[in-house]
Amino acid sequence: MTTTSLVTGLDGVRAEIARACRDAGRAPDSVTLVAVSKTFEAAAIEPVIVAGQRVFGENRVQEAKAKWPALMARHPGIALHLIGPLQSNKAREAVELFDFIHSVDRASLCEALAKEIEKQGKAPTLFVQINTGAEPQKAGVLPQDADDFLRACRATYGLTIAGLMCIPPVDEAPGPHFALTAKIAKRNGLSLLSMGMSADFDVAIAMGATHVRVGSAIFGGRH
Length: 223
Ligand SMILES: *Cc1c(COP(=O)(O)O)cnc(C)c1O
Fold this sequence. Notes:
Bound molecules: pyridoxal-5'-phosphate
Oligomer: single chain
Shape: globular
Radius of gyration: 17 Å
Distance between the termini: 13 Å
CATH superfamily: Alanine racemase
Largest sheet: 8 strands, parallel
Number of helices: 9
Number of strands: 8
Mean pLDDT: 95
């Protein structure tokens, strides 16, 4: 892709977010666009930064470590979001590098994160991932376990959880999955909702998403 089409992609997504916010009667700045740059090299990411985007998402700690320190040294004010599954043994690197972690989903990870947050004196904003479709291959807490898990995050591990994240099954309408995630967040007093990707971020915004994770609509298809 050329630089021009990358920026057009970003502008198009921003315009669509603004439209979805208007339709939903929401302020446009109530939704944060997380530009998902996984698999794309620094050369493809940099034009998007230059176009004004400052919030990016990666799904692997190692890949992010290889790409982002140099980019962040050149461009101040970048916020990095980890949106993919996190192994407990990578908690140290994740807390060092990321401002947000969207994939908290089990006790062992809570324990590892709590230890690192204490040690580093720095706490990323945390989301608990909900496996709304109860898909065996997918990470996340089952909906029926969410309330207990959220209670344990606070009471047992002393973690502050800011919101919930979900990835609906690819072959189902996303709306009910977004609605379920919003409902669990509401009854647990959580204000942030990470939901919506390239194909469905407008639906997610209608259902209250505060963070949409958009990759291919900005950067083009991944190989
Ligand atoms: C890759 C990815 C996205 C972005 O997907 P697109 O369809 O390219 O917008 C969003 N969320 C997660 C968790 C991802 O892994």
